[in-house]
Structure formats: C-alpha cells, structure tokens
Amino acid sequence: MNQSPTKNLRGWTHVKSGKVRDLYVPTELTTHSGRDTVLIVASDRISAFDHVLPTPIPGKGRILTSMTMWWFDQLNDVTQNHFVSVDVPDEVQGRAMLTERLQMVPVECVVRGYISGSALAEYRETGSICGIALPEGLREGDELPEPIFTPAAKADVGDHDVNITFEQVEEITGKDLARSLRSISLALYNRAREIAAKQGIILADTKFEFGRRLQPGETDLVLADEILTPDSSRFWDAGTYEPGKAQPSLDKQYIRDWLTSDESGWDRVSAPPELPAHVVEKTQERYIHAYERLTGQTWGR
Q1: In this protein, which residues make up the domain named SAICAR synthetase/ADE2 N-terminal (predicted)?
Q2: Which of 80, 218, 228, 238 has an alpha carbon 20 to 30 Å from 181's alpha carbon atom?
C-alpha cells in the first residue's frame, strides 16, 4: 500500500509531498517539447478534516489518475491543461502523470451548484457564501439559483483552506487574473455538470487549481493537478437525490461520516484513528463506482 512516496525513482528527485500526491523533478536538466516537466504521483493516501489518515485506500491513486486524464480529454476544448504524457517510471505506472511545471496560483477555485458541507455552515451563519448573498431558506442539498465561484486560500499540509471573497482573490492575484480564474472555473464546472448529468450523476461542487507557464511572455492560465475526482468533488446519484438532507455521496463523505460517528471516537484534534476494514472497503467501492458511472468504463481491479 502506498503511504510513503516512492523516493527512489531512477532519473527523478522527490521534491514535495502533499496530502495525496508526491512530486518529482528530473534528476538531470531535461525538457519535453521545450517544456520543464514534473512527475505527479497519486498515492493511496486519503485525507479528511485536514488530516492525512493512517489507513490508505487500495488502488485509489490509480483511480484518481485515470479519472483526471479522462476529464482532461473531455474538457480540453474549454481550457488547456498541464498533462504531457504517461511515459513514467514502471514503479508508478498507472498512478502517475508527466506534466508541465507551472507557477501555481495560490487560490483554490471552488465552484458550487448545490449547498452542502462548509458552504452550508457559512450560509446558516451569515446568509452568504464567500461574500455572495443567497436567498433565504435554503436547505442542505438544495440547488443554488446558479453556480457560484467560492474561492479559498490554499493552505499547507495540515492546515485548513480558508474561504475568501472574490475581492480577496483580486488582492492576491490582481483583477484580470481573478476574473479569468472565475470565468474558466465556472465554464469547466458547467461543462462537467452536463457530462455527469448524462450519466445520472449530480456534480454538487468541485475545485480546480491553475498555474501559469514559466516561459517569459506566456501568461495564459493552465488547468493543473487532479480534476473532478471523488477527492476534489461531491458526486451525488441523481436517482436518489432528495434535497433537505445529507445526500449519499460517491466520494469520501463515507469516511467523514465515520470519523464523526461515536464508533470512531475521534476528537478531530488528536491523530486520527485507523480506518476499519468495512470503511476502507465501502470507500473503495464508491471511488470505483464513481469512475465507472462517469466514464462508462469498467475499472480493472
């Protein structure tokens, strides 16, 4: 099971690990089609409530990588992305991508079409989300009048991303870039939402990350990291959708629910507990089901 990064990849140097992904750069200075590259390896680690859990979900890294590449293909006419190839070391084959090295924008570009999670808590307290006023009386799981851009400031591993207003994004990135982030994020969400709906799945919310190319004079935004996976999105089954209550999710909500249950006994402050076998199994099933429902392809177990 892949908890720790595979640090001894021939020709690659490990430079950073996030909650789920491990990043490597070429040991020797090389480029691919004139671009600097970085190897992104998706591990089987899983996080919840800003903690990396001690128990991995077998095969999760392969599912995330396959889903991301599938979505890149579906959305490549909406915006460019950082994918280069799957010419990766054998040790990480199937769960790694060779990508362009970018200057990442320090903003999580969250788009919500339905109200749930932290957005619901903020709405109940303020009547708004990230400074966007919403109608009164919205219930958990309700569809919003229209999708909204609800950004967050990116945090280090172990810290909590903080919801911010669009005006704060403008302060971080400048007005023109902030508007581009919002426009492209909404366009990506709307297209992905249509694609998911055809498979009977509701895309409740998701997040995107963007970077900019390092070459002088190239300022276009490039879609980066993973996209539209169960780690970065809320997927609901349209056939069982019932607003006014929490929705069964095809994502890691099953783990969140267990961690907040009496069975786990976790206080969300101390180190998180090991996941029992039934939670690991049910979570793995949800990831596989999300992949198969969205792509129409059978997952090779």
Answers
A1: 15-271
A2: 238
